[in-house]
């Protein structure tokens, strides 16, 4: 696969419903304190990426989604063909990659002006840690992000 290139800047989250992201993992609700989105290219695959983190700065627990650029529902099982994927990351050594699930993008409004692109959607997936530490089930995911 090719390298990713980011076409936008990061933005701070103020909460889901304005500019934010939340999800439930194994029954515990988590709300991102930092969110970002961007239009990326994975090789020749144009994607929308959405990230929600539980802390500011580097490291920390986060959920990352890569989906198509347009309103619709996208499968979230890692695919070299589509680039659609999701991950729930607890730490560098504990990363749960989606083996099934989906993301639904209900609003897709890209803009050439930084901070003016707007995406809204929902997601759910089951992630498996390739290091063999088990699975995590991510449900009730939602995002409403400007970037």
Automatic annotation (TrEMBL):
Entry protein name: Lipoprotein
Disordered: annotated segments: 1-21
Top-rank lineage group of the source organism: Bacteria
Record organism: Hymenobacter ruricola
């Amino acid at each position: 696969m090719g390298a990713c290139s980011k076409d936008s800047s990061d933005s701070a989250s103020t909460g889901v419903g304005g500019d934010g992201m939340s999800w439930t993992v194994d029954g515990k609700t988590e709300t991102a304190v930092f969110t970002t989105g961007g239009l990326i290219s994975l090789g020749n695959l144009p994607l929308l990426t959405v990230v929600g983190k539980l802390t500011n700065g580097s490291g920390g627990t986060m959920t990352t989604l890569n989906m198509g650029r347009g309103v619709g529902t996208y499968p979230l099982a890692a695919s070299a063909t589509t680039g659609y994927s999701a991950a729930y990351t607890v730490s560098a050594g504990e990363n749960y990659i989606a083996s099934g699930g989906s993301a639904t993008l209900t609003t897709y409004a890209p803009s050439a002006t930084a901070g003016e692109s707007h995406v809204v959607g929902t997601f759910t997936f089951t992630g498996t840690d390739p290091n063999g530490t088990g699975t995590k089930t991510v449900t009730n995911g939602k995002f409403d992000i400007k970037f």
